[in-house]
Amino acid sequence: MEEVRVRFPPSPTGYLHIGGARTALFNWLFAKKHNGKLILRIEDTDEERSTQASIDGIIDGLQWLGIDWDEGPYFQTDFAADHTAAANRLLASGHAYKCFCTKEELEKKRETALAEKKAEVGYDGTCRHLTAEQVRAKEAQGIPATIRFKVPKRPGTLFYDDEVLGRIERAYSEIEDFVIVRSNGKALYLLCNVVDDIRDRITHVIRGQDHMTNTTRQVLLYEALGAKLPVFAHMPLTLDLQKRKISKRSHGEVVAVQFYRDMGFIPWALCNFLCLLGWNPGNDREFFSREELIEAFSLSRISRVNSVFNFKPGDAKFFTDPKLIAINEHYLRTMDLAELGDLVRKELEAEHLWDPAYATSRRDWYLATLNLIRDRFHTLKDFVTAGRAYFSDQYPIDPKPLAKNVLKQPELAVWLPQLAGRYEALAEFDAEATERVCRELAEELAVKPGVLINGMRTVLTGQLAGPSMFDIITTLGREKVVARLRRIDHLYAAA
Ligand code: GLU
Questions:
Q1: Is 193 in the pocket of ligand 1 (CB under 6 A)?
Q2: Domain with 449 in it: what CATH number?
Q3: What residues make up the domain containing 130?
């Protein structure tokens, strides 16, 4: 069988957004599934809008997601000679012609056609019928020319078989002669994209449905260039709850891949979510490992209807799609601890909380601590915010438990240091002994153990809730526990 070769060809005119990332992901999955190749091609022909920052952002984003490519990045502008050569071949073979109509003339014709309510408002074909002599004469006068593709005047429809949508047809008569090279000699995207796909021996073009109007015209280009058509698979668009296409302009950062990295999402969680946004596994399954997804993926299960990215601006719970948050939580709780350890390490390093011993002598402690605290967390950021007390003596105290569990019980300023003293004296500092001692003291003081436990939780972790108190105590270790319990008076002083 022919080698599967797919491509991800972003135009570097902005950040990598989740729609683009999904396109890259589907191509990557398809390549991996068929032992094929993924080619990264930067379509930078629009020189005014392409930026280096965007190229860097796209590459960083793909790398962060774990979407690796086999060839490239190629840059479309490096192949300008190929594009020009193809245009010249089309001219020579009679599939294209020079058009000398000026912008103003075309605009005028359009207006007249619109005013006369003509069915066809596209190019009227004025230059299609120029003789070779007329062309030479115009060239001699120095009139600039674009190159237009000569759409065959055939009856019936042009068609291709889309892997997702089935047969797509369009009447030849509806397709106007389109420009493939500007009057400044630069080839247009429509042509460059096809020439590059032919050169890169692309077998499958998997891209958004927003490209379908291009596809029909590109089918004509393939035919005229004598090249075999790739298989086309058009993916549904991603819309918001109001059914608007998602874009940074209307939706802001939340549609940028970078946002999820900054918010502490797990890259694979985003991939898993993106895949379900437009691909249907055929059952209720929601979580797929990388290998499982590669195995399960198929173009035929790409959905035909648009997918909805469910987020509500201004609603904290819906700061992004809740399904994405749930998937992230799932991976946070279940992923391999060593892998989680690597991800949390980056967060700790960024906050200057990383201790090199966590990679050596304290690795067991480090991983056990992550395992203890990960259950309630939503993102990787929580390890350095809500979980800060495990890695630093400087951690914020949530005002809610501070008011409820500490300030309302001023006697704790005496009781907790008293407990600290008993903890210091314990022969064995473990969960069982620390709990026993705590309950004994509560009994002596005639208070509910919860009063001491809640106060302790607030003082030791700054949090209202968390893992079992005595697991926290043993994780933090005697020294920190004793010191923090003795420091409780600072909380009253600061209040
Ligand atoms: N450069 C185009 C884009 O970013 C690529 C379209 C295609 O996949 O052919 O939309």
A1: yes
A2: 1.10.10.350
A3: 78-190
